[in-house]
């Protein structure tokens, strides 16, 4: 897929325009984002991604369009897992609701920059070293096993947040005020420059997403080797992430099997990468440096598996939380009855 330089510029320019529109309309006046407002923005960004994918279909064919959609859906679903961490960070720093939108905006801008660097490095590595696919594939399988193990053990998405080295370094670099100072990032106190907690939270959000990029970037390279499609899928997934945070809200806590579903997807893509690496093998210590006749997994099957796993995960999660809710309600109803029986026995 040959992508002219002007297409890169036009894509980046279009994304910047979307951000500018978002800034003018949403962030013009700090406010609590309603579910309806968040829903409209999520729909808008998904529509933009769909139109972009249809444009790829028209000008570059169905294969590349399928790769974009598979990458976009994968990155978007992996980004939902980020929202759990965002919720924990917001709660830990007690960020006022009216300022959360600004925090997410800056954090996601940082994530776009970091992921752009990761994508450039990953594309360069893949073009120079074919064995990188073995490394990426093995890493994704390892991550999948680790993620599923922590999910079954009930340790993921905990409510405890410990500041990382980057945020601790920022606190040493700038003195930090105790309050949010009406949403300012920096302020002056007695002539000295202070950072507000908003600055620390922005760094925490950006650095948290950086850790998630270590998993997501290899995952999307398992679906497409085209750096342009990798960047576009990541950008569109991140662009709608802020509004998705406000739209889902408490629903995130109900997606109890999300990590298991993401583990299945990462494991599937990891196996796909290893099979493709074996199919085009050039390492001398594997089959004498000759490719192996192994089956490969195409984009239609990949897209079907990703959508299917996400659908099953969502349905199973909501069914479990509904059952748990009914069970809790029944226990609450039984408690007054049991208390009444005890009082009656004592009276007798």
Descriptive overview:
With 348 residues, the chain is mostly helical. The protein has one domain (7-281, 297-323). It is 74% helix and 2% strand. The protein is built from eleven helices and two strands; from the N terminus they run ααααααββααααα. The chain has helices spanning 5-25, 35-60, 62-92, 97-128, 132-153, 165-173, 197-221, 227-239, 241-248, 258-279, 299-347; strands at 186-189, 192-195. A two-stranded antiparallel sheet has the order 1-2. It starts with a helix and ends with a helix.
Structure characteristics:
single chain, 348 residues, mainly alpha, two-stranded antiparallel ribbon, 2% strand, globular
Terminal-residue CA separation:
86 Å
Q: Which word captures the global form? A: globular
- Helix-strand sequence: HHHHHHEEHHHHH
In total, the number of domains comes to 1
Whole-angstrom Rg: 23 Å
Strand content: under 5%
By DSSP (H or I, 4+ residues per run), the number of helices equals 11
DSSP E strands, number = 2
Average pLDDT value? Answer: 82
Name the assembly state: single chain
Helix coverage percent: over 70%
User: Main beta sheet, described?
Assistant: 2 strands, antiparallel
Low-confidence stretches: none
Report the structural category.
mainly alpha
Spatial arrangement of strands, main beta sheet: 1-2
